[in-house]
Specification:
The chain contains 16 helices and five strands. By secondary structure, it is an alpha+beta fold. The chain has four domains: about 55 residues; about 160 residues, no CATH class; about 40 residues; about 60 residues, Arc Repressor Mutant, subunit A (Orthogonal Bundle), CATH 1.10.10.60. Strands 1-2-5-3-4 form a five-stranded mixed sheet. The longest helix has 20 residues.
Length: about 325
């Protein structure tokens, strides 16, 4: 309801009654006084669409000038022709400056992580929270939609104290949220940046027929999840002995982890076996450790179960595998 009140504040700023918008969204005016009230995503989308068009301001009063209806559609169209997500996000941030300089969007990336942050160049007043939340939702929503993938966020930052409705934030952003940060922004795995965009003009036009599809649509499918699971299992063997530990490391619930892996045609047990097998092979090849120690390092409780599993994976016992490698190296 706090975000509904923010839209009503935009109407107040422009000296227009919000009665029609509230009626269209089936939100009774008396509900605005509910401190812990909620509306559905569908109601909020209807309210936002009506307000954006009635006020002719897609920024809903955030900035010193209106952003006419269709402004963010232009950003989508300019960015969706990019070859990869990284290029698309650079375009989005650069061209957002054509809309306003009240805030600047900054995009940075290195080999491991990508960061998007918002620089505030003027006081945003009572609409600050709504503005920063929505801008980050636009960016994350566009990125997910453009590559048709749920992008897990490593961290989401906001430069204000936790609001009374802070419990809503995990529903808005798939990652740990931190308040009282220096700036607003989020961070995610840089590997997403290389993924190609899969949307064309027809898909863009269909998406833009709705007011806020990028901010209300939550993706379940993560095109990098299998790879992230493999990396987590390899890098943190002790923390990922079970689904609960792995899910916590990936900032999701165990149920979501299993469901998304199923959607990708994978299973946690199969990925565990794959990582264990590669770890065992590397140890057998690169070290002279006894098989019992290799078994423990690969996550097995005893040597016998390791030998049985290794034979299923490779068709050889650990000793036979090591001997075969030795024979190859000796003959090369």
């Amino acid at each position: 309801m706090a975000f509904v009140r923010a839209i009503v504040a935009a109407y107040t700023r422009y000296g227009v009654s919000p009665a029609g918008a509230l009626r269209q969204a089936q939100i009774a005016p008396r509900r605005l006084r509910e401190a812990d009230g909620h509306v559905t995503a569908a109601q909020f989308e209807v309210l936002s669409a009506h307000a954006m068009q009635e006020l002719d301001d897609e920024a809903l009063g955030w900035f010193g000038r209106r952003l006419p209806w269709g402004s963010y559609g232009l950003l989508c169209r300019a960015s969706v022709t990019a070859p990869t997500l990284g290029v698309a996000l650079k375009r989005w941030c650069r061209q957002h400056r054509l809309l306003t300089d009240d805030v600047l969007l900054h995009f940075e990336a290195d080999a491991t992580a990508a960061t998007l942050r918002i620089e505030e160049r003027r006081a945003l007043g009572e609409l600050r929270e709504f503005c920063l939340v929505t801008l980050l939702r636009y960016l994350h929503g566009f990125a997910c939609w453009a590559i048709d993938s749920r992008i897990a966020l490593a961290r989401v930052d906001f430069p204000f104290a936790p609001p009374p409705h802070a419990s809503v934030y995990p529903l808005l952003f798939p990652g740990p949220v931190r308040f009282n940060a220096a700036t607003a922004g989020f961070r995610f795995d840089a590997q997403y940046l290389a993924l190609p965009l899969v949307r064309d003009e027809t898909a863009t036009r269909a998406m833009l027929q709705r007011a806020l599809p990028l901010t209300v649509l939550q993706y379940r499918r993560d095109r990098l999840l299998v790879q992230q699971v493999r990396q987590a299992l390899a890098a943190h063997p002790h923390q990922t002995r079970n689904a609960n530990g792995l899910a916590a490391l990936l900032a999701m619930s165990p149920r979501t982890l299993h469901r998304q892996l199923r959607e990708e045609g994978a299973s946690l047990q199969a990925l565990k076996n794959e990582v264990r097998c590669e770890r065992a092979k590397a140890l057998l090849y690169r070290s002279a450790k006894p098989v019992k120690q290799v078994a423990a390092a690969a996550g097995f409780r005893n040597e016998k179960s390791f030998i049985r599993a290794f034979r299923q994976w490779t068709g050889l016992s650990p000793g036979e595998f090591r001997a075969e490698l030795g024979a190859r190296d000796g003959g090369s």
